[in-house]
Amino acid sequence: MTDASAWPPLPLAEWEGTHAALHRWLQVVGKLRMAGTPWTNHSWHVTLALTARGLGTGPLPCGSGFHDLEFDFVAHALHLRVSDGRAVSLPLQAGSVADFYARLRAALRSLDLPLEIRPAPCEIPDALPFEDDVAPRPYDGDAAQRYWRILLQAERVLRIFRARFRGKCSPVHFFWGAPDLAVTRFSGRAAPPHPGGVPALPDWVVREAYSHEVSSCGFWAGGGLGYPAFYAYAYPEPEGFAQWPVQPEGAFYSQQMREFILPYDVVRQAPNPDATLLAFLQSTYDAAADLAKWDRAALDFVIPA
């Protein structure tokens, strides 16, 4: 049996307002990472990383020094730290996106740090620019902390899955656009141009991200589904993908999303959550790789005993 607290419940309806606020706050900080990091293929330079207390940017250059930003979901604060020892912390609290953005701008100025970003969300249809988003928003610290704890467990299992592949593969990283935790495997072959059409994201960014065949999987807290779930998809999607008999029971192919979906609660309530999630990750990869005829002898990796 597993420790139930390791995979806590997180029904989206109970914290949807907090999730929407946090999504936009993460975008502000994610854009600071994007501005301070050289462009990397498939937009890997924009991602945030999980920490022992939340989500952070990692070190970003500023002159001859460095700084970082970290969402701390234990203390419920956003920490800004400079390598010369200066630091500022902002409480995570109910309030508008505009208020969060203004407080962060002031903190950056106090530390002589730049704020050179496009001040509007990506991948959110019809979203207001940060400084114009003045509607009050809640902050449920308990839900935010449970979300982070789930991300940590998901990352741990995704790392196990990632280690079983010797080909080109992304890190396990957090994209603030969706937002989702993801890991992506590549066959090594070029893919047809992606059609684009992602809200508030240039088509060339999407086409570069999907320039080569992929099998991708990850976790998100709800979005269009209405509940937290693990997902897996292939681009381009090979013929017969949707009909593949994936595991475990409870996983299904969403025609709307064009992805395999495993509801988070199936994993959370399983006697062995790790094995349940790994079965989903492996069987959906099998679907993508076998149907598209990837060179699995060269790409798959069996860890020596």
Question: Can you tell me about this structure?
Answer:
The chain is α+β, with helices and mostly antiparallel strands and 305 residues long. The protein has two domains: 11-132; 141-299, no CATH class. 30% of the residues lie in helices and 21% in strands. It has helices at 16-35, 97-110, 141-162, 203-209, 264-268, 273-291, 296-299; strands spanning 49-50, 54-56, 60-62, 65-72, 77-82, 87-91, 173-175, 180-190, 212-220, 229-235, 252-254, 259-263. Strands 1, 2, 3, 4, 5 and 6 form a six-stranded antiparallel sheet that branches. A six-stranded antiparallel sheet has the order 7-8-9-10-12-11. The model has no long low-confidence stretch (mean pLDDT 96).
Fill in the keyword field for this structure.
305 residues, 2 domains, 6-stranded antiparallel β-sheet
Number of domains: 2
Instruction: Give the number of DSSP strands.
Output: 12
Poorly predicted spans = none
Q: Give the structural class.
A: alpha+beta
Query: What fraction of residues sit in β-strands?
Result: 15-25%
> Biggest β-sheet, characterized?
6 strands, antiparallel
**How much is the radius of gyration in Å?**
20 Å
Order of helices and strands: HEEEEEEHHEEHEEEEHHH
Write down the overall mean pLDDT. 96
